[in-house]
Specification:
The chain is an alpha/beta fold and 639 residues long. Strands 8-9-10-11-12-13 form a six-stranded mixed beta sheet, sandwiched between helices. A five-stranded parallel beta sheet has the order 2-3-4-1-5, sandwiched between helices. A hairpin with a 4-residue loop joins β10 (483-487) and β11. The protein is globular and about 70 Å long. The N and C termini lie far apart (61 Å).
Length: 639
């Protein structure tokens, strides 16, 4: 039986499948994506799929593809389509870069992106790193075990053969003599051991691990002062290793930002030169960039030696031009809306009166005649997803029973709410990785404090938030002190530093945080969710000075303390795409009391206790091999 009003109209009053979902975020690229109509701009995604197939067949080695399109036309939707099809077909490894926090350290950031991307699940619901590790062992030892069999069998191997990682590393290096850094192989092999995988991939990112972790894994922390050269060398070796088994598809998205490096080049120009270097050095791979047409014309084509760059960024086409995305037409609009509604009604187990309900087909066709962008269509649907759309019966007449004249007035939600709810869902899905992103956490805390200017919290009348992030940074571009909270007629000046890294960086950050005179502070505040190793003598001494001599504070936090702050920060960061104003975002923060009632924010402002917090995670806990192995895990591997 087809419903007319009742349950479906009640569903529409309470849920809007389009609201807050008009922009593709990295979470949709890696996880569950929005409904896709593969025929829309199929020429762009097909170019990537064809390139992968040509490389797999040995007809090409490396292919560069650049997509250009106006804002909202669907560039990230295309990338999401590519990722999900490659995952389903198990034909390639997917690497995605959409953030460029430090253009001066682009190679180090790219290495971190590669390591992070390969942590994502591949076709077998395992990390792509683990698929590579299994392939390496199978080739070296002439075996045919699956990645899952290796993971299940590793506890026994490590328990019965303590030198197994050494032996496997040596075996792999015999068939990969071109690998100059044997520790890369060692770290990849460790990813098959669940207790060690997190630390191994962290090391593969080029980041420091604690000495206990380094000793356990047999992986030395780098002493090389030239982090950029080392990062590029390591990333080339990693990509060469992966390309022996699957074609790496490397996507550079969200390039149209205004940031400029110390050398005077923009983000698209810095990335274009990086892609040129990768094109020249990779054995096999597809390099995909997406940008606005004006970015291509005004920034890429004006580069020094632009022809050499363009030859590599658009090698897929004989005319060396980017692939332009098309605007939507009426058929595209109908197909897109129907796909979204089909998912919506299926998820809610409803059978609508017609596939486009509650929209009118003629209105959607009219919308398509204006050559809209994909984003503008979804925005229109979000704004017009309401009941009381008359249903046309088979006789061509309006079904009067379909018009609900007794509905309660619909209360319009805050314009930010749907976007906040969506971002909060994204944050919860990726909170483990976000907890390692100190810069992102710091930016979220900064935004919360900016929203509190001219308010009094914990007896501090907040007057201004001063950005200190650009004053001094570490070798890898990380910030030592993020910002300063100024209040009570400048009698209160709190320097805030969010530090999640270990190693030398925590000591260097604390060194700045206790230098009250240089940074004009009355209090230093370390924000950190992890313990500081007892073996880090210099950092521990500086911490003692901060807490006991300087009257500073160490504020610990857990994931629930930052989820809402991160979600609203992402809304604010993407507010232009969401067509929201900054005033609307701040109004929502105040209405929901996201900042003023946040325990982390209040703790930063409260009187220091002089004690280390007790709500910390301990990365120094030894990585133990499970002593109790289930029957399912008790797999005997013959290597």
């Amino acid at each position: 039986m087809i419903a007319t009003t009742s349950t479906i109209d009640e569903l529409i009053r309470n849920k809007n499948p389009f609201a807050g979902h008009i922009v593709v975020r990295p979470q949709q690229i890696w996880g569950k994506s929005y409904p896709d109509v593969s025929s829309i701009n199929a020429h762009a995604s097909d170019a990537v799929f064809n390139a992968v197939e040509q490389i797999r067949q040995g007809k090409r080695e490396t292919v560069g593809i650049t997509m250009t399109a106006e804002k909202g036309l669907g560039k990230s939707h295309i990338i999401s389509r590519i990722r999900h099809r490659l995952q389903a077909e198990n034909t390639a490894l997917f690497i995605y870069m959409g953030k460029y926090d430090n253009l001066n350290q682009i190679k180090s950031q790219f290495l971190q992106t590669v390591a992070s991307s390969l942590r994502a699940f591949g076709s077998q619901d395992l990390m792509q790193w683990q698929e590579i590790a299994a392939a390496l062992i199978n080739e070296a030892k002439k075996c045919n075990y699956t990645p899952r069999q290796y993971i299940n069998g590793y506890p026994n191997l490590l328990k019965n053969s303590p030198r197994i990682i050494d032996d496997l590393t040596e075996a792999v290096l015999k068939i990969k003599p071109e690998i100059t850094n044997p520790y890369i192989i060692r770290a990849i092999l460790w990813t098959l051991s669940n207790p060690h995988a997190q630390y191994a991939t962290y090391w593969l990112s080029g980041l420091e691990i604690t000495q206990i972790q380094a000793d356990s894994l047999g992986l030395p922390n780098s002493k090389n002062d030239d982090k950029e050269a080392e990062a590029l060398s390591n990333v080339r070796q990693i990509l060469d290793i992966t390309s022996n088994y699957k074609v790496p598809v490397i996507c550079f998205d969200e390039l149209d930002i205004a940031d400029i490096s110390d050398t005077g080049f923009t983000a698209p120009q810095i990335v274009a030169n990086l892609v040129k270097d990768l094109y020249n050095s990779l054995k096999r791979g597809v390099l995909l960039l997406s940008m606005y047409p004006e970015t291509w014309n005004e920034q890429i084509r004006t580069l020094p030696q632009a022809d050499a760059v363009i030859d590599r960024l658009a090698s897929e086409k004989s005319d060396r031009q980017p692939i332009a995305l098309n605007y939507l037409n009426s058929d595209n609009v109908l197909a897109l809306v129907q796909a979204w509604l089909k998912d919506f009604y299926q998820d809610n187990q409803e059978n609508p009166p017609h596939p486009l309900y509650p929209f009118d087909e003629n209105k959607l066709k009219e919308l398509g005649k204006g050559r809209p962008t994909l984003r503008s269509v979804l925005k229109w649907c979000a704004d017009n997803f309401v009941i009381n759309t008359p249903i046309i019966n088979n006789g061509g007449k309006i079904d009067k029973n379909s018009i609900d004249t007794e509905s309660e007035p619909i209360i319009t939600p805050h314009p930010v709410k749907a976007y906040f709810d969506n971002e909060l869902s994204n944050v919860e899905a990726s909170i483990d990785s976000l907890m390692e992103e100190a810069t992102t956490i710091s930016d979220a805390i900064w935004l919360a404090f900016v929203s509190l200017v001219d308010k009094t919290v914990e007896e501090i009348a907040i007057e201004a938030i001063e950005d200190l992030s650009g004053i001094e940074t570490g070798a890898s571009g990380d910030r030592f002190i993020d910002f300063k909270v100024i209040g009570n007629n400048r009698k209160v000046r709190i320097g805030v530093s969010v530090v999640q890294k270990d190693g030398r960086f925590i000591g260097a950050a604390l060194d700045r945080l206790i230098d009250y005179k240089r940074f004009d502070l009355t209090r230093g505040c370390l924000v950190r969710s992890k313990t500081i190793s007892p073996n880090a003598a210099l950092a521990r001494e500086r911490l003692r000075v901060l807490l006991q001599d300087k009257g500073g504070e160490w504020v610990g936090f857990q994931s629930q303390d930052v989820k809402a702050l991160l979600a609203i920060y992402f809304v604010w960061y993407n507010s232009e795409s969401y067509e929201l104003t900054e005033e609307q975002v701040f109004d929502f923060i105040e209405q929901q009391q996201l900042a003023i009632n946040n325990p982390l924010i209040r703790e930063i402002l409260s009187d220091p206790s002089g004690q280390e917090p007790d709500n910390l995670t301990d990365d120094e806990l030894p990585m133990r091999i499970p002593q109790s192995i289930s029957i399912a895990d008790n797999i005997q591997l013959t290597l």
